[in-house]
Amino acid sequence: MGAARDGFVGVFDSGLGGISVLRSLVAELPHEDFRYFGDSANAPYGEKTEAQVLELSRSIADRFLAEGAKAIVIACNTATSASAATLRAAHPDVPIVGIEPALKPAARAFPHGRILVMATEMTLNLDKYHELARAWGGECEVVPVPCPGLAARIERGDLDAPDLGEMVEGLVGGYAGSVDAVVLGCTHYPFVRTQVERALGPGVAFFDGGAGTARQLRKRLAEEGLLSGRVRPGSVEFASSLDTPDELALYRGFFSMPL
Ligand code: DGL
Predict the structure, then answer these.
(1) Whose C-alpha in 17, 92, 160, 163 is 20 to 30 A from the C-alpha of 226?
(2) Of the residues 129, 132, 154, 188, which should be mutated to test ligand 1's pocket, given the most ligand atoms within 8 Å of the CB?
(3) Which helix or strand (DSSP H or E) is residue 28 part of?
């Protein structure tokens, strides 16, 4: 199907985490129409197999394309690792932009620093991450920190509840006072940045892949002549595989919450 400039950009994640990326996409490309799909009924992806995540990602991408998407953003580090190469090979004519842990800018900012990479176990186990760490880790001490359960807990909302702060403390508190930077390598985690800051203490720099992904989408749309030519603001629509009014209200809340 030939993509059209007036088509929408389909954005997906295992759940509501990719809304952190969507916020960057809308800030970078305010004239585009975005449709966000969160697969909350199947979250968390990080605790599934690579083959399962590939299959789920493939069916979401196919649906977006059948509905007229001109581009797709995989707003999930886990799904990018498991599916981006396969989806691009299947749809070479469509810009498909993924997200990866922002280790490159973190390592550039702290070339001899100690950098924590918080991500799902699957992201940290797959080749894509090992290649990234080899290519950009340089002289840094890169410490992978798998965070089982964290994305699933964020999916439930109620971010100010004490149990969430305690969970984050349990995952990273042991590194307090000994790190220069943290890479939030799962798109759910920017929503608990405050809790991570609290657990690690002051003076830690944070990096996530949202802004870089948005710049990459702009570049790919421009290369393909697909940037919207409109001057009015674009639209943002939300859908979820847990398609209840409560779930969609949670998504909208995450879209507008101050971070
Ligand atoms: N938000 C996803 C990521 O960026 C995955 C969370 C999950 O479903 O495990 O990796």
Answers:
(1) 17
(2) 188
(3) helix 19-28
Locate the ligand 1 atom nearest the alpha carbon of residue 75 and give its number.
4
Cα separation of 75 and 78, whole Å?
Answer: 9
Q: In this structure, which amino acid lies at residue 101?
A: P
Kindly state the percentage of the chain with pLDDT values over 90.
95
Query: Which pLDDT band, with edges at 50, 70 and 90, does 1 fall under?
Result: very low
What is the model's pLDDT at position 2? 45
One domain for residues 155 and 174: yes
* Helix (DSSP H) and strand (DSSP E) numbers for the chain: 11, 9
> Of 190, 207, 224, which closes a domain?
207
Q: Report the pLDDT averaged over residues 141-154.
A: 97
Task: Compute the distance from residue 20 Cα to the ligand 1 centre, in Å.
Answer: 12
Number of domains in the chain: 2
Three-state SS annotation for 73-110: EECCHHHHHHHHHHHHHHCCCCCEECCCCCHHHHHHHC
Please give the pLDDT value at position 243.
85
Q: Is the pLDDT of residue 21 over 90?
A: yes
Best CA proximity match to 87, nearest among 61, 126, 122, 49:
61
The Cα 191–Cα 38 span in angstroms is 15
90 and 122 co-located in one domain: no
Ligand 1 center to residue 231 CA distance, Å?
A: 34
pLDDT over 80 (residue 3):
no
- Would the CB of 17 count as within 6 Å of ligand 1? yes
Do 115 and 66 have their domain in common?
no
